[in-house]
Specification:
This is G-protein coupled receptors family 3 profile domain-containing protein. Belongs to the G-protein coupled receptor 3 family. It is a multi-pass membrane protein. The protein is an alpha+beta fold. The chain contains 19 helices and 18 strands. The strands form 6 sheets. Strands 1, 2, 3, 4, 5, 6 and 7 form a 7-stranded antiparallel beta sheet that branches. The N and C termini lie far apart (137 Å).
């Protein structure tokens, strides 16, 4: 193999020839003509070698390594062999020259005699004339690594001796040998790298020369220094590491259990709210707000709370699937149920004709069902075709932990939710001045604005402010997002209703709505209560009686006003609404009645007083007393 490498290098260039000599044996004297390249460069590239001519002694020549016959055959036999057609010269063993501190390999050929000399003497076949070439083998690298790594062997095949493959001294179980070219004709031309799952003691690789020395030390001297070059195993659950420190982030289970317990209590509280909504479904404050959609909203809140249970353990495939479903499905149910009710109010206020819009809960559910079906189909296709799974990320301390993978499925659904959220904000903004009993539209708008704001803030925290937060911090962010969006929504929607139930005013309308002319039949169900439940006859009778009394009072009032205006000679009852004293007071209090007659001024003031005091005294009874 060594001769093959030398021949390959000779075919490429003669620069591997460091020395050349011709030994002429002309008895009784010797003539040695030698040529040598300068050793200033490596490998030698000097085109003008130095030539020397000398007359050495035979004893000095015989002791040279290039002359020594290591095959124990006489030069006469070599000469006889070289006379055969196609025969070659002989190669010496590699030897080290102390002067140049290099390893050489010499090729020697016998110069055949040309016949009988002029003196008549036959040539000396025991000490014939020779020509030799010294090849520098110091530049050849000895590869001691394992033969399995053929790619490394073929990279430097013209300068690499592969006869010594598998003679490295790396610890095979914990490290592997990596061939390092450029060391030359010496041992240790490699380095030991730790295998996957192991790490070095000195935070690097091991030099092959030192490893060879340590191996000899433990073999012959029983010195345990070789243990310094054995890689150590990584901690458990660490496929790769640089030290014995843990590579995985630790979980504060006490902290996570506390947050999960709070979320579980919120789920329990939401279930109780559903029961209370069903129990008080006939009370106006709930009946006018569509109990069906209130329960659907609470179901969505429960699903969103369940996300905290999905991300509680160390994430795996099942946890990631549950996380995606609870997060997106819960948001869709909650937000859609709130938005359908607000959208119904928006349609009611945009009507420009006298036609009465009737949107029942059943009709709104027909709009809500396709939205939920689209989300369910999307989540199902996502789960079956590209099942969400965990991925390893690092925190600020380069500790690894699992997080659910994000891909184009997440991004597409996020874009759809942003568009849906923006449309919801627009609808809520369009009904900001709409009047409804119990301020239902206002509280829903607050809830929608809060959901949009919380999601924007939490995305900013996740992606921009704390992109490499640890697992417990990310769990805290998820808890805060759930509480600030879901719990706040429950507080906005159901807090005022149960407050009225506690105060006993759940069936009473506010005076502000009455003053603006909002009738008892107007609610978030549109113009007219369109619940699918059977109507409460006693409640309807009260409402009809109230409307008839109001209409009768207005008709009687207009009748009295016209009578007073057309009969100036009649004097009003002292102390009544049309007395002079009350007329002056009412005229002073009414800035828009300065140019009207006193009876008309009193009529306008009495109208406002009648509307504000309708809950205290029947208008018909009051006007009847005026007539008397």
């Amino acid at each position: 193999e060594l001769l093959k490498l030398m021949m390959q290098n000779l075919l490429k260039s003669d620069e591997v020839i460091s020395k050349a000599r011709v030994l002429l044996h002309d008895a009784p004297s010797l003539h040695l003509i030698s040529s040598q390249r300068r050793l200033s460069t490596y490998p030698p590239t000097d085109p003008l070698p130095k030539v020397e001519v000398s007359k050495p002694k035979l004893s000095d020549v015989i002791s040279q390594p290039w002359y020594e016959d290591r095959s124990n055959r006489s030069w006469e036999h070599r000469l006889q062999q070289q006379r055969n057609p196609g025969s070659l010269g002989l190669w010496s063993y590699p030897y080290f020259e102390c002067h140049s501190k290099r390893w050489y390999l010499t090729y020697t050929a016998v110069i055949p005699p040309s016949g009988t000399h002029s003196s008549g003497n036959t040539p000396d076949t025991r000490n014939p004339s020779l020509v030799s070439l010294d090849m520098d083998v110091t530049r050849l690298d000895i590869n001691q690594c394992d033969p399995e790594d053929q790619q490394q062997h073929n990279q430097h095949s013209d300068t690499q001796v592969t006869f010594f493959l598998g003679t490295h001294k790396c610890h095979n179980q914990s490290s592997k040998c990596v061939f390092t070219p450029g060391y030359g004709w010496v041992r240790g031309g490699y380095k030991c790298e730790c295998r996957k799952g192991y790490f070095p003691r000195n935070n690097g690789t091991f030099n092959g020369t030192l490893v060879d020395m340590a191996w000899e030390s433990i073999r012959y001297n029983k010195n345990p220094i070789y243990q310094m070059y054995v890689c150590r195993r990584c901690p458990e659950d660490c496929p790769e590491c640089k030290s014995d420190e843990p590579c995985n982030a630790t979980y504060n289970w006490t902290f996570r259990i506390v947050l999960l317990t709070i979320s579980s209590l919120c789920i329990l509280f939401t279930i109780v709210l559903m029961g209370l909504v069903y129990h008080y479904r006939s009370v106006k404050v709930f009946r006018l707000a569509s109990p069906t959609f209130l329960c659907i909203c609470l179901i969505g809140c429960i699903i969103m709370y369940l996300e905290m249970a999905a991300i509680f353990p160390v994430l795996d495939t099942y946890s990631c699937v549950a996380t995606k479903w609870t997060r997106h499905l819960g948001f869709c149910i909650t937000f859609s149920s709130l938005l359908m009710k607000t959208w119904r109010v928006s349609l009611t206020y945009r009507v420009t004709s006298a036609h009465k819009i009737k949107l029942t809960d059943k009709q709104l559910l027909q709009w809500l069902t396709p939205i939920l079906l689209i989300v369910l189909v999307y989540l199902g296709a996502w789960t079956l075709s590209a099942t969400p799974g965990p991925m390893s990320i690092t925190d600020y301390n380069d500790l690894k932990f699992k997080q659910c993978r994000y891909d184009w499925w997440d991004h597409s659904l996020a874009v759809g939710e942003v568009i849906f959220l923006a449309w919801g904000v627009k609808v809520c903004f369009s009904v900001r001045k709409a009047e409804s009993f119990f301020d239902e539209a206002k509280y829903i708008s607050w809830a929608v604005y809060n959901i949009a704001l919380v999601n924007i803030v939490m995305v900013t925290f996740h992606l921009l402010i704390f992109p490499k937060a640890g697992p417990d911090i990310k769990y805290l962010f998820g808890f805060l997002r759930t509480q600030l969006s879901t719990s706040t929504t429950v507080l906005f929607i159901f807090g005022p209703k149960f407050n009225r139930i506690v105060q006993g005013t759940g069936d009473q309308y506010d005076n502000r709505a009455r003053a603006k002319g909002v009738t008892a039949s107007f609610s978030l169900n549109g113009l007219g209560v369109m619940n699918d439940e059977p109507a409460d006859l006693s409640q309807e009778n009260e409402e009809l009686k109230e409307e008839i009394q109001k209409l009768a009072a207005q008709m009687e009032f207009m009748k009295i006003v016209h009578m007073e205006m057309n009969n100036r000679h009649l004097k009003p009852k002292p102390g009544g609404y049309f007395s002079e004293k009350n007329s002056v007071i009412n005229t002073a209090q009414s800035p828009g009645a300065k140019n009207l007659p006193p009876p008309v001024q009193a009529a306008k003031v009495s109208d406002a007083s009648n509307e504000n005091s309708s809950a205290r005294l029947s208008p018909a009874a009051e006007l009847a007393s005026e007539r008397v």
